[in-house]
């Protein structure tokens, strides 16, 4: 089980690194927009992302 978790974490790091590597200026602007976002809106977006991930994981498995 630990090996699968480490693989998932490695894939997360790879996917997260794609945008700053390919489009550094766009990524900086996106981070600036996120920094100005209301915390409750960001929390709702994070919850939606987690729920979508759980649904996708359930469908795939």
Keywords:
61 residues, mainly alpha, flat
Architecture overview:
- The protein has 61 residues and is mainly α.
- It has one domain (2-60).
- Helix content is 92%, strand content 0%.
- The protein is built from three helices and no strands.
- The longest helix is centred in the last third of the chain and has 22 residues, at 39-60.
- The two termini are 15 Å apart.
- The mean pLDDT is 94.
Q: Would you report the number of β strands?
A: 0
* Alpha carbon gap, first and last residue: 15 Å
| Helix percent band | over 70%
Please state the structural category: mainly alpha
Q: What radius of gyration results from the CA coordinates? A: 15 Å
Mean pLDDT: 94
Strand content bin: under 5%
SSE inventory with pairings:
Blueprint: H1 2-22, H2 24-36, H3 39-60
Summary of the model, kept short:
The chain has helices at 2-22, 24-36, 39-60. With 61 residues, it is an all-alpha fold. It has one domain (2-60).
